[in-house]
């Protein structure tokens, strides 16, 4: 098969669908989302059979238990995907919103109207639920979507994509609105990366390697998601009981995600009071601690933290701890090692809180709360397509609004330019 | 010289400056802009001497008269650049604006605050005034800027950049806030294109070739500017006197710019009444007409329009004309050949106007006005860094706001995630 031609044909179909989708009413789009939910549950047998093929192949390939867990689908997980579709249907549709409108001295009335991006490409890894989530968010915002999932999930993804795509067509949405690249291999990705003129944006979702590959090789505009080397800084004037709960939450509530804390910074004045008790609780929770020399003098027996540790997103029950002399030293550490994702301070001092909020450059900056809230649902967006770690277009959790662009609509009565 | 090392050193300096600039007050930034204006005028002799070198080299290289005109600086043009700086100083500063803020059920208060992008790279061609304009807009928005102008203007750009950079430093802005690549040759551009981690965005300003090169080869996020194959559609229910003024304005007021009209679409019902008189006026104004068969039957003696003509941005006194049978045919033509820049309809029919506004996918869609208004000043933004023809981050004229991103600021009282 000519892979390039295969991908381009899909992209052309998506582009054609995008033009119709842009004009689709919210009612029709919601009906499609509900029909997709219904179809997923009615045809769960098909999905589970396809998933069993992927699981078997995964076991034979020797995938890790963690990867197999991500790959696995159950009736419950399919019901969750369907529920996700119903939640997206219930969200407000941003398309058509006139964000603002003003009148120029010459009488021209100019407005910014939200419109779909067009065709969104999503390149993702093992979890088959991304197929449903991404399709739902794109469809709700009037975008066509070209999906390329991981080869481990190819059977599951193909079954899911065919079912939801057919359900969407049956309520009147165009063929091509939701499409999956149904072949495996790197070549299809390479073609997608350079499909300018067909794809309006690419969103990679997955590990650091995937994201790096996409960013470095795409000529299509990319929204970078993912990497989070996040910090909590416990200030000299922190409420230490509050700090302990925030630190434990930020590290252990779900350590494998990008908004989990990786390094704890503690002001020297409170280190002796704060660290030993905290270390005991963290150790009980299975967290491996790595400390700077001062930390190690206060918490005997833990490993030294290396330069690499400060720069590492562990995504695991590992925590690096550093005692700092001042807010400035904490800010400097975050500037040097942070990835501009989520950063938190625990302090009771108004001026310290204000400086931290102003001076830390990150997608989300917290005062007295856990970094774990950087998430579309937690922010109140209802759903998210990912968390942007770049500064263009979208930063932080991306909800439906971030899947739209604007166009200027201009009403005149014959105005010409002098 | 090691070009890569040279560019990276500049980028590092810019990054350091960006951190300080992000915290600079509007007062300080405005003082710098005014000092830059003052310095340009006080040291105009230096600039004119450097420009004379560029002009001489340009003549020897056989640059066209048009290019030499763009390159030329005069006392008047320097005064205009200084005036531009004063205008940017007078604009409101978007940095620090909290776009919105809301409170979650758990009490977390979440706000979106406008912050600078960081380091902006601008790659541009002949006009030395871009050096001043781009530096001013970036500085006002708290961004450091790394400029790379065309080799033809290297002496002019170097003189200008040194003067404004020194003026900015003298009022307390960091070294590195405004920097120019002072060497010529493609290699520096190639390095800039892949400076992820140093540059937050690249904005190419210039011809189609430059923009294509940047889009295809950059791994740094790019904002694409420029190409405009714009249409005016004169509907069956148009006010034909209004249509004639709009068409003449859109084609002839400044034909070399991206928002000028390149193809005129006319509904068959009014073509016989509209086209002959219009053609006469356009011909008198020096416009070369190229028509479809129906147009040629109504306006004898003009060249046939080819498939290529429909797809061409002439940037010149050339107009392609096509008679269409319906709004749908006009929409289809625009969809096929347009570049999603600026599109206009002339009509007195409410429903036709509404369909055109909804269905045309372009940065700016006009009803009863000239396409020539797609411009930062005309839209009321006060100044522009370019006109984005992509959908991510910015679309249409980019003012100060488009040179910022947001960060989420989150106020808590110890909230942790369940």
TrEMBL record, chains A, B:
This is Gamma-glutamyl phosphate reductase. It comes from the Bacteria. The lineage of its organism: Bacteria, Bacillati, Bacillota, Clostridia, Eubacteriales. GO terms for molecular function: glutamate-5-semialdehyde dehydrogenase activity; NADP binding. Pfam families: Aldedh. It is found in: Cytoplasm. Its EC number is 1.2.1.41. It is an enzyme of class 1 (oxidoreductase). GO terms for biological process: L-proline biosynthetic process. Keywords: Amino-acid biosynthesis, Cytoplasm, NADP, Oxidoreductase, Proline biosynthesis. It catalyses: L-glutamate 5-semialdehyde + phosphate + NADP(+) = L-glutamyl 5-phosphate + NADPH + H(+). It comes from Carboxydocella sporoproducens DSM 16521. Pathway: Amino-acid biosynthesis; L-proline biosynthesis; L-glutamate 5-semialdehyde from L-glutamate: step 2/2. Residues 10-287 form the Aldehyde dehydrogenase domain. Belongs to the gamma-glutamyl phosphate reductase family. GO terms for cellular component: cytoplasm. Catalyzes the NADPH-dependent reduction of L-glutamate 5-phosphate into L-glutamate 5-semialdehyde and phosphate. The product spontaneously undergoes cyclization to form 1-pyrroline-5-carboxylate. Its main location: cytoplasm.
């Amino acid at each position: 098969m000519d892979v390039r031609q295969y991908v381009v044909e899909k992209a052309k179909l998506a582009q054609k669908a995008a033009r119709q989708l842009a004009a689709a009413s919210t009612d029709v789009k919601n009906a499609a989302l509900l029909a997709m939910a219904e179809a997923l549950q009615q045809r769960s047998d098909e999905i589970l059979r396809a998933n069993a093929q992927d699981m078997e192949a995964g076991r034979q390939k020797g995938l890790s238990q963690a990867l197999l867990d991500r790959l696995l689908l159950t009736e419950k997980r399919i019901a969750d995907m369907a529920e996700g579709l119903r939640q997206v249907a219930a969200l407000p549709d941003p398309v058509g919103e006139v964000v603002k409108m003003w009148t120029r001295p010459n009488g021209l009335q100019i407005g910014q109207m939200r419109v779909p991006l067009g065709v969104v490409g999503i390149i993702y890894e093992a979890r088959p639920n991304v197929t449903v989530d991404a399709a739902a968010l794109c469809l709700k915002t009037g975008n066509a979507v070209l999906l390329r999932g991981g080869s481990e999930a190819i059977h599951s993804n193909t079954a899911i994509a065919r079912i939801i795509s057919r359900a969407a067509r049956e309520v009147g949405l165009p063929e091509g609105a939701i499409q999956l690249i149904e072949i495996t291999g790197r070549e299809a990705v390479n073609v997608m990366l350079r499909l300018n003129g067909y794809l309006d944006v690419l969103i990679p979702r997955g590990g650091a390697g995937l994201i790096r590959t996409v960013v470095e090789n795409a000529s299509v505009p990319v929204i970078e998601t993912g990497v989070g080397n996040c910090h909590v800084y416990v200030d000299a004037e922190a409420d230490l009981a509050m700090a302990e709960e925030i630190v434990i939450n930020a590290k252990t509530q779900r350590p494998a995600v990008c908004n989990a804390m990786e390094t704890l910074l503690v002001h020297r004045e409170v280190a002796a009071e704060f660290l030993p008790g905290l270390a005991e609780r963290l150790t009980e929770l299975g967290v491996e601690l790595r400390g700077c020399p001062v930390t190690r003098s206060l918490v005997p027996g833990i490993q030294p933290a290396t330069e690499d540790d400060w720069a590492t997103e562990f995504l695991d029950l590992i925590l690096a701890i550093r005692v700092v002399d001042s807010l400035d030293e904490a800010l400097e550490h975050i500037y040097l090692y942070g990835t501009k994702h989520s950063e938190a301070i625990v302090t009771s001092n108004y001026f310290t809180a204000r400086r931290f909020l102003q001076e830390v450059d990150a997608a989300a900056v917290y005062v007295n709360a856990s970094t774990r809230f950087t998430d579309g649902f937690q922010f109140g967006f209802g759903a998210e397509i990912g968390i942007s770690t770049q500064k263009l277009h979208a930063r932080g959790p991306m909800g439906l609004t971030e899947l739209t662009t604007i166009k200027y609509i201009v009403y005149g009565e014959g105005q010409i330019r002098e």
